[in-house]
């Protein structure tokens, strides 16, 4: 997904400000559905060609894929005069339809990936610029709100005003708890204990463990392999042997010895071309679902919602928000000044 900016103390407040700012723009608008799975936002290329991927429908050409994973084609009611040649032709036609379906799905998925990545980059850039350019303004607004609340509380002495002033000040300067200060370094008894990974049972494994280990090392050593694949298999197996020996686990070593004696599992039969194509369609469908989830998360974010307001001019939207924030800062400064102004000649 998705990339995300590092966590910053002010991010939550900025996100809330962004959502609050977004509400006036959304007034009078109809609710828009999340853009996947039918495709990305209107500003980007549609990816409707992926609809139906993996469900047996021909993607992009309107044809039925037909056939089955093993290349067989259902009969069409013709008589017993149809021979093997006719069946072979039908299987070939079904395979060709699968080829076209896979090709169309691959092209559509590429366009969908481009659209999602384009949108992700814009969301990330907008978020970064929003924080850099507007973050100080949001911080100033928070500070002014705290000062105004404190001034009101000082004038009224009302308990509710004082509580509100404390809340506004806490937003500007949150006070961390004791656990946060020590970042969980202390235990329940107030003492910090070093992390202790799982310790071996004993310094020197038992005699039986040493015997099993030596036998396995002699039989399964990677240097005895005749090809690269076998060397990799032996290397992975010996790594498991070493781990069991380090723990002195005789039972695990015996199980590994039995596994080695049984030999490698038999190679599965190679799939037919039709099976490969169906597997490819399933992978394409799964990939599309993953991208759709990423796209939905991006669009549902505060930044994504703001980008939907001005998809053609996001920089102009930033400038518009900045002007509104400056006006809010000026209004709050005037209010604070009026609250701090002496009354009836008193200092």
From TrEMBL:
Taxonomy, superkingdom: Bacteria
Stretches with biased composition (Basic and acidic residues): 1-33
Biased composition (Gly residues): 51-60
CDD domains given in the database record: DnaJ
Start-end of Low complexity biased regions: 66-75
Region (Disordered): 1-85
Protein name stated in the entry: J domain-containing protein
């Amino acid at each position: 997904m998705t990339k995300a900016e590092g966590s910053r103390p002010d991010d939550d407040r900025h996100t809330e400000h962004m959502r609050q700012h977004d509400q006036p723009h959304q007034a009078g608008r109809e609710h828009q559905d999340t853009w996947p799975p039918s495709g990305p936002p209107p500003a980007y290329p549609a990816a409707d060609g992926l609809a139906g991927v993996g469900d047996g429908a021909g993607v992009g050409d309107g044809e039925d894929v037909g056939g089955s994973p093993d290349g067989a084609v259902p009969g069409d009611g013709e008589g017993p005069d149809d021979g093997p040649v006719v069946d072979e032709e039908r299987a070939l036609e079904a395979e060709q339809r699968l080829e076209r379906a896979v090709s169309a799905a691959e092209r559509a998925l590429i366009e969908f990936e481009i659209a999602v990545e384009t949108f992700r980059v814009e969301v990330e850039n907008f978020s970064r610029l929003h924080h850099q350019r507007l973050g100080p303004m949001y911080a100033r607004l928070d500070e002014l709100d705290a000062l105004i609340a404190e001034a009101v509380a000082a004038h009224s002495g009302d308990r509710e005003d004082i509580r509100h002033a404390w809340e506004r000040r806490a937003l500007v300067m949150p006070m961390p708890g004791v656990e946060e200060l020590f970042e969980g370094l202390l235990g329940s008894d107030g003492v910090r204990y070093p992390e202790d990974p799982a310790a071996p049972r004993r310094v020197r494994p038992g005699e039986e463990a040493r015997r099993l280990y030596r036998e396995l090392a002699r039989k399964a050593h990677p240097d005895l392999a005749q090809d690269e694949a076998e060397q990799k298999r032996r290397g992975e197996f010996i790594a498991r042997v070493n781990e069991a020996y380090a723990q002195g686990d005789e039972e695990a070593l015996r199980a590994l010895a039995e596994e080695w004696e049984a030999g490698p599992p038999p190679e599965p039969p190679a799939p037919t071309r039709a099976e490969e194509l169906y597997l490819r369609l399933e992978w394409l469908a799964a990939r599309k679902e993953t991208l759709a989830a990423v796209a939905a998360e991006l669009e549902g974010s505060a930044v994504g919602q703001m980008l939907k307001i001005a998809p053609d001019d996001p920089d102009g939207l930033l400038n518009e928000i900045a002007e509104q924030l400056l006006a809010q800062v000026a209004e709050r400064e005037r209010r604070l000044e009026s609250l701090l102004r002496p009354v009836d000649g008193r200092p």
